[in-house]
Specification:
Layout lengths: L2 E2 L2 E2 L6 H11 L2 E7 L9 E7 L15 E4 L4 H8 L2 E7 L4 H5 L11 E10 L2 H14 L13 E13 L6 E3 L1 H6 L3
Antiparallel strand pairs: 1-2, 3-4, 3-6, 5-8, 6-7, 7-8, 8-9
Family: Belongs to the CREG family.
InterPro entries: CREG (IPR014631), CREG_beta-barrel (IPR055343), Split_barrel_FMN-bd (IPR012349)
Organism: Upupa epops (Eurasian hoopoe)
Length: 181
């Protein structure tokens, strides 16, 4: 198996493990919403967000993509109208693809597309989200308090894995959460 930072990358025939692995090794993703903004209403709108499913390290990821958001952010304003979104994460942001000379668009540079919705977490889950996010993004703790930041999660309903030639693989949320990365 080829090595990536933090452990061996799963083989292409283990799509659920690959999805968990890629999410856990990514610190950010591209979140796409349907715009509610004047002039863009109803059009796709993508934006970069810091994410985390848990502190760095093998087997410490929950598989749940957590986010730290404010209503001042344009994509969050879109989500207030329609909470449906997609989130794409890719090993292109790690050293793995560069080391192997994989173009970010190459299926060998694995990327995962999650579809679902963004939901605010309750107080008990906010403790987990805070630990997950602040362990990877410590600067967040110093962001302006008057922006009314809150913790949210990506509620996954569909998962597509592109990690090898031959097309997308579909993984159910049940399969995804039942494996360790």
């Amino acid at each position: 198996l080829l090595l990536a930072a933090g452990g061996a990358i799963p083989p292409p025939d283990e799509a659920a493990r690959m999805a968990r692995f890629v999410l856990h090794h990514c610190d950010w993703g591209a979140l796409a919403t349907l715009s509610a903004q004047e002039g863009l209403r109803g059009h796709p709108f993508a934006n970069i967000f810091s994410i985390s499913d848990g502190p760095p390290g093998p087997f410490s990821g929950s598989g749940v993509p957590y986010l730290y958001l404010t209503d001042m952010e344009i994509s969050v304003q879109d989500l207030e109208i329609n909470s449906n979104a997609s989130l794409t994460v890719s090993l292109a942001q790690t050293s793995y693809c560069k080391k192997h000379r994989y173009d970010p668009q190459s299926p060998l540079c694995a990327h995962i597309i999650f579809c679902g919705s963004i939901v605010k977490v309750n107080d008990s889950e906010a403790v987990l989200a805070k630990k997950a996010l602040f362990s990877r993004h410590p600067e967040m703790e110093t962001w302006p308090k008057d922006h009314n930041w809150f913790f949210a999660k990506f509620n996954i309903t569909n998962i597509w894995v592109l990690d090898y030639f031959g097309g997308l693989k579909i993984v159910t949320p049940e399969e995804y959460y039942s494996v360790k990365p």
